[in-house]
Amino acid sequence: MIKSKLPDVGTTIFTVMSQLAQEHGAINLSQGFPGFDTYPYLRDLLAKYVMEGYNQYAPMTGIPSLKERIADKTLNLHDVAFEAEEEVTVVSGATEALYAAVTAVIEPGDEAIILEPAYDSYSPAVRLNGGVPVYIPLNLPDFSVDWQKVKDAITEKTKVIMVNTPHNPGGYVWTAEDLNQLYALIQDREIYVISDEVYEQITFDGRKHLPVFSHPGLRERSLVCGSFGKTFHVTGWKIGYCLAPKPLSREFRKIHQFLTFSTSTPMQYALADFMENPSRYIFLHEFYEKKRNRFCRGLKETAFEFIPAQGSFFQVVSYGHLSDEKDTEVAIRMTKEIGVACIPVSAFFHDHRDPKLLRFCFAKEDRDLDKALDRIKTFRF
């Protein structure tokens, strides 16, 4: 029998809750995927390229036109230039990008600071590469960073700080001061930044997404991972990308070529054509802000406490003032009793600590959000 490299890892909570939702016919506000289809024109573009025979391997780093679109978007939105050919890499989903980035940087014994609650792929990627995760809790209830705790955690072995903005599950959006604080801590050290920015187009209330590379001091030591799945409602396409300076991109690509080598060819061509019109992504925040507002209006009629998410398509609610029940039990009971599935936030902590929080995905049709809210109002502790 083989010795497991991740003996403490089982089926993810996202899979568990989605299966439970299906079994009980519940409205699935748990797993982070849109409850509506992508744009018809994007589907038509994909069909076009499939029918025209664009069905063989793409170049390992991505087709030139898509890399150019990504570089153009970055320049237009953030006034930061990346060389499409050498600093932009197309990959098979942001999770692959994160894994390849960690693998490129982490050596056995290196420490990686992970800000919790955190997406569940960060720690396994570090551990599988022989690294040591160092967990720092975010401030609650707003999920901001306690920079003193980060400073105290840095040692001579620290090699990576994992960043996530807009934050999943908490919805916090990093500020310019956050970027300044991060740079102040690492400017005199060989510490790299791996930043998960898959919700970059989804920020609310006038907030602007600030990618880590927008800070001049951070650009040369950062690998930024993005995704088309969240932006264009195609999570099942599993297409992402990594932006990094040339030296880091070279090492990143060495890993990528032995993970998936290349990414779906017709999908890349379809996305490249679709992105010719920037309005297809720069106004996405308006679409999701309406959904967040709709969901939060309904939550105000419940006993839950919450701070409206600053970004992402998740809303976290607190019930600690109502009950000491474990969040996993509450999530399961909610699915079975009222037919609404959510995610217990303890799943985002390595030690499964329970701050009595639940995460709901509001990237759903309005009718499903309204139906879910009507059911949530009937839930009792």
Automatic annotation (TrEMBL):
CDD domains (alphabetical): AAT_like (cd00609)
Protein encoded by which gene: ybdL
Annotated GO CC locations: cytoplasm
InterPro entries registered for this protein in UniProt: Aminotransferase_I/II_large, Kynurenine-oxoglutarate_AT, PyrdxlP-dep_Trfase, PyrdxlP-dep_Trfase_major, PyrdxlP-dep_Trfase_small
Any Pfam family matching the protein: Aminotran_1_2
GO terms assigned for molecular function: kynurenine-oxoglutarate transaminase activity; methionine-oxo-acid transaminase activity; pyridoxal phosphate binding
Name this polypeptide is given: Methionine aminotransferase
Organism: Cecembia lonarensis (strain CCUG 58316 / KCTC 22772 / LW9)
PANTHER family documented for this protein: FI04487P (PTHR43807:SF20)
EC number: 2.6.1.88
Alphabetic keyword roster: Aminotransferase, Pyridoxal phosphate, Transferase
UniProt keyword Transferase, yes or no: yes
Top EC class, one word: transferase
Residue ranges constituting the Aminotransferase class I/classII large domain according to the UniProt record: 27-376
Family: Belongs to the class-I pyridoxal-phosphate-dependent aminotransferase family.
Cofactor (UniProt): pyridoxal 5'-phosphate
